[in-house]
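**User:** My hope is that you can spare some time for a protein that puzzles me. As I understand it, each token names a local backbone shape. I would be glad if you read both lines and explained how they fit together. The protein I mean follows directly.
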Amino acid sequence: MNTDMTGKVALVTGAASGLGRASALKLAEAGADLWLVDVNPQGLAETAALLAKSGRAVATQVVDLSDAAACAQVVPEATTRFGRLDALCNIAGLIYLANTPQMPLEQYRRTIAVNLDAPFVLSQGAIPHLLETNGAIVNVASCASYIGEAYAAAYCASKWGILGMTKAMAMEFQKAPIRINAVAPGGMVTNIALNYRPPENCDIELLKRFSGMRGQVEVDDVADMVLLLASEAGRGFHGACIDIDKGITAG
């Protein structure tokens, strides 16, 4: 399986921690140079430090991905620095749980902005470059892209949206040398999960659907799939969404 990324450039969002950091490490091990994006400067610096011994060129950019105008500047800065782009890994995300009548509209909009609007804007900028390099887009969907989760109307809306966007873009570029796919993990031990707080007075029974009988998904397992889809090893995938959820969506 050829996951060699030597001489290639990958842009990774959410790179300050969790799946974004794990994916950056996998991509660097495979030989990719990296443009890393996150809203958390300290976490980005820590990721860059972990990559220092990889021998790869690594650059970081602090960006609030809820700001569409800021998102629009990411790809131009990355391609100015590296001269090319071979993979866009849209990994950054957030989740906010609330009873629907009490969910602040501002929080709903921020969730959609980070989880759905940002990947769209970044893809708009990346696709012309990826067409030149026969590159790939890897989006992060979720088991919540298929089934509803109580108290997570905004999150589910964003993740159903990212799945639809992945497939729509894949159809649009069926005749082009570019691959557009997604990976759909179940619960992982990441900053998102650690900050996962059910709303007050919620019915815990309604949340058990997402707990899974087999426990948490390993972050490295999902990062391995991100690498596969970003690399030549993923040449057979286009418009696919790979579930890694330990059976949560099996039935």
Q: What stands out?
A: Residues 188 and 216 are 5 Å apart (CA to CA).
